[in-house]
Please model this.
Amino acid sequence: MKRLVGCALALALIHGSVVADDWSPDDDTFDPTIQSVVIGDRSWIGDPSPFVHLGLSRTGYTYVASVAYDGFDPSVQISLLVPTKPGETTPPAGGMLMVNQTQALELIKAFEAGLKAEPNDKDQRIPIKTAMEQADWALTFASDENRRFLQLEHRSKDKTDTYRLSSNASKKLLGAIKHSLEKLEEKTGGESR
Model:
């Protein structure tokens, strides 16, 4: 009996995790049942969307969740996680956006418009309102070799960090934002501020 319970527990733990062979950076759909993904020698929470931090030319991954922090409206949090390299003592420039329900809906519309745009459409910068008023985030669009990219851009006093997503990664991130917004609305009874 103990052996059966142990096997069932092991299968339950494995069920929510995916190894890199089963996870594709080119996938365009978000799967909320995935608890973590192993890519290379690291584990990433959830079903992440890959992006390239342009300043570092390094691939990072997103994590999206609904949150309720003291002092803020219930929000969708989008974390942009950039891995460290061996020997680095300072963490690389990751980022985080927190958007309340109204701001999340505006962000979803901006992403959907960006995904429908043609590769040669004029580049534009759409400011993103976030729960942290002093944060300067925007959604930008870029083309490279007739491919369209959506970029999350954060400006501070001394630098700009740009996180570039392919169309498929943008679609997956959009799915994660929509899923987290639904979870947020369930928690708050659909109220929007």
About this structure: Helices lie at 2-15, 101-116, 167-188. Residues 37-185 form a domain with the Transcriptional Co-activator pc4; Chain A fold (CATH 2.30.31). The longest strand covers residues 58-67.
